[in-house]
Every structure is written in C-alpha cells, then in structure tokens.
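Lecture notes, part 5. Sequence design as translation. It can be helpful to think of inverse folding as translation between two languages: the language of shapes and the language of residues. The source text, in structure tokens, appears below.
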C-alpha cells in the first residue's frame, strides 16, 4: 500500500466496464492527438519522426500516468510492478510513467466510499463504530485503508477495495499490454501471452480479500516464534471478500530508517533477508510484493510490521531447486555452472549464451566476485551495479534474445530484487554469504 495520507483529493474510481473502456479510449485519443501534433512539429523542423519518439513525449507521458492512476486497479498495479522490477532498465520516458504511478495513488471521494461500505456492511454501518476516519491513511492500486475504532474499543485498519477493480482485471491487463505494444517497447516476436495470463491470475488473487485474510493468518502462524516481526490479526466481524479488517499496528515507514544508525539498518535488513530465505527454502510460500509500503517499523519495540498478503503465493519445488542450484554454483565460483543454471531454470534464453556469451560471462564474474567476498555485503556500494548494467544494457538491446522466464520465477525474483533495492536504499551491510550458506550444500 502506498502511504498517501494528506495528499491530493478524492477522485471517483471508474467502476463499470464501459466507464473503464471509455477511459482507455480517451487515453488513446489523447495520445493520437499528441502524436499528430508532435509529428507535424518535427516534420516542420525537417526531421523524419519515429512513432516511438512521438509517443513518449513528456506530455504523453503525463497523460498515461494520470489516466492509469485514475483507473487504479490492474492498470495501475501493472505499472507499479514494472517500475519496481525493471526501473533501472526502462527507457527514461516509460520509467517516468511508472515512477509517477508509485506515488500517485488517489482515494475514493466520501460518497463513493459510503456506497461501497453500505453494500458490504449495510446502510447503518457507521453505528458499529465509535470512530471511523473518512480520509484513508493509505491508498494504492486495488484499495485504500481507513483507521477505525469499534464500539467495544478495538482499533482496526480497514482495507476497502475500489469498486469495479476485480471485474476489470482482464480488460485492464489487455489494454496495458496493447499500450506497451503500440509504444514499440516490446518486440512483436516476444510472446507475453503466458505472462499476461499469470498477471491476470495473480491480480485476481490480490483482489480476493478472503484469500488474503487466510494468507495473513498463515504468515502470522509461520512467524509466531519470531520476536522481530509482527503480523496483524484478521478481524472476521468486519471482513468480507471486498473489505479486509485487521488490527491496527502503529509504525513508521520503512524508508525513515535511512536516518537510523548503521546497526539498526543492518539489523532490519538482516531480518528481511532472513525472511526471504525462509519463504523460499523453508515455508514454500512467499509474499511476492516487495513494495516498501508493505513494511513498517516500530522504534519502541524495534519490530517490523508486515502488511499486505494479497500477493502471497506458493513457491514451486522446481523453483526452489533452481535457486538452490544457482546459489550453489555462485558460492562455488563456478562460472559455467552458473551459466547452465540460468538457462536451465529459464532465467535467460539460450540465445543470450549463443550471441552474447562474453558479456554474460563478464556479468557472472562480477556476481561471483561479490558472492565470494567474506564478511558483510555493502548494499550501499553500487559500483558493481554499473558494471552489470553496462553489459546488461548491451544484451537487452538485442531484441532477438528477449525471453520471458517462468511466471513463478518472475514473482520470486521480484521479491528478491525488491528486497535488495530496499537494502540499497538503507545502505545496509549484511553478511548475505553466511546467511545463504546453510541453504545450499557445497559438499
């Protein structure tokens, strides 16, 4: 959930199929007008304009970001996912759209919120609360969160789903994919159909609040013996398939730890990396959304609050085995084994090895070198990232080698990458090698 307290004004969520289709139609019309105007300007300047350059102008970027933010739901969620997963490798114009979507969640206006809650709880729902804050404390792509106190004194956080979000998932995903195709950012030969199907399934699961309640309870049980983390408890009295009520847990945004002591930052990231490893190799289930807003910190108790379990999903045994094989090869410093593991698990296509083996090996050598260092890994030292990006951008420029990894791998990698991104933001130093060694057998 994006923390959106005190920002912006309410904006009604288009809930009907025709309403949402109309929003995409207006977006397409606006982009077409922008393309025509930009094309005419460039022709007048003696240029031969390319469609991609005319589409990704600052004005058009703003139109896309604003319209997707207005739609919320799958359209906005996909943008946020792409931004976190691939922000460093996106064209600057598209990266700007996605960055705006991370920070531009808008909440429902009070009349629409009243209609939604009346449908879920009945017309006199307010009488069940001593206090209900009408302005959300957080708003994101699928729902918004309100703070409330029941008549018997229970303090709750109540997540309310935007109307029409669940019903619009398939169409929204298809429309966003069409926008990406039209932008020329995806090669025609790249088949993303399986990925789109998986995205629709995942988003449908995230919109099922009864499922999320079960996942929240499951993680609470899995982590019951961990003193460093706390998971909210579901309040069944006020929970439905479109409203999720849970105990309110006060905490500060995880990003505020940027000003904390080095020891605190190191400790927090050690907790989170340990959690990722347990999810992958022990629990067999992972909360795959690493959005920073899903973590809060309690300075008094020094505990981490874990939020939002809509993206929790099982980790397939073959995915677990693939990561174990890859880590084992990396820790052993075996470049060829790492290369083979990447291909066998579907992380990369065989075309990358055939066409860009030298660059790929250079990237593997950098990673092996980092994994081989004893002691804490300094996530704040990003020198190696520029080395990887230099080689990676060259490989990515060859569209004939583009490849869609298995969906399960993509979601797990999203959690791993997002956790590393948070560690970099906090400039944490963590002995990752020592933490990973027990998960693999180097004998």
């Amino acid at each position: 959930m994006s923390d959106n307290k005190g920002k912006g004004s309410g904006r009604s969520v288009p809930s009907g199929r025709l309403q949402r289709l109309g929003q995409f139609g207006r977006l397409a019309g606006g982009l077409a007008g922008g393309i025509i105007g930009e094309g005419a300007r460039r022709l007048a300047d003696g240029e031969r304009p390319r469609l991609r350059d005319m589409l990704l102008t600052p004005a058009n970027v703003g139109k896309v970001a604003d319209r997707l933010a207005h739609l919320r739901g799958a359209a906005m969620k996909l943008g946020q996912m792409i931004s976190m997963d691939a922000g460093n490798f996106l064209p600057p114009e598209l990266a700007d759209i996605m960055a705006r979507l991370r920070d531009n969640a808008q909440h429902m206006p009070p009349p629409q919120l009243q209609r939604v809650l009346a449908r879920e709880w009945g017309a006199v729902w307010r009488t069940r609360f001593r206090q209900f804050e009408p302005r959300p404390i957080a708003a994101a792509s699928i729902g918004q969160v309100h703070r409330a106190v029941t008549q018997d004194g229970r303090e709750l956080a109540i997540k309310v789903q935007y109307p029409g979000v669940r019903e619009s998932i398939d169409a929204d995903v298809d429309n966003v994919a069409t926008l990406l195709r039209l932008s020329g950012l995806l090669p025609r030969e790249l088949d993303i159909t399986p990925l789109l199907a998986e995205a629709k399934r995942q988003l449908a699961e995230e919109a099922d609040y009864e499922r999320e309640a079960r996942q929240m309870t499951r993680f609470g049980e899995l982590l019951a013996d961990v003193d460093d983390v706390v998971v909210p408890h579901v309040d069944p009295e006020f929970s439905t398939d479109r409203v999720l009520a849970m105990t309110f847990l006060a905490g500060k945004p995880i990003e505020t730890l940027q000003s904390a002591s080095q020891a605190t930052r190191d400790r927090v990231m050690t907790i989170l990396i340990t959690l990722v490893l347990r999810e992958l190799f022990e629990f067999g289930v992972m909360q795959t959304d690493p959005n920073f807003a899903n973590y809060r910190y309690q300075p008094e108790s020094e505990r981490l609050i874990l939020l939002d379990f809509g993206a929790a999903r099982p980790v397939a045994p073959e995915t677990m085995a693939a990561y174990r094989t890859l880590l084992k090869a990396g820790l052993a410093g075996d470049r060829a084994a790492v290369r083979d593991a990447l291909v066998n698990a579907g992380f990369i296509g065989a075309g990358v090895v055939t066409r860009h083996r030298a660059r790929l090996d250079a990237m593997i050598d950098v990673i092996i070198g980092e994994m081989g260092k004893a002691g804490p890994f300094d996530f704040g030292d990003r020198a190696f990232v520029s080395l990887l990006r230099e080689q990676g951008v060259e490989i990515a420029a060859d569209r004939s080698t583009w490849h869609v990894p298995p969906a399960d791998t993509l979601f797990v990698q999203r959690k791993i990458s997002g956790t590393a991104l948070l560690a970099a933001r906090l400039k944490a130093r963590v002995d990752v090698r020592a933490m990973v060694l027990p998960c693999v057998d180097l004998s």
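The translated text above is only one of many valid answers, since several sequences can fold into similar shapes. Residues 17-44 form the longest helix (28 residues).
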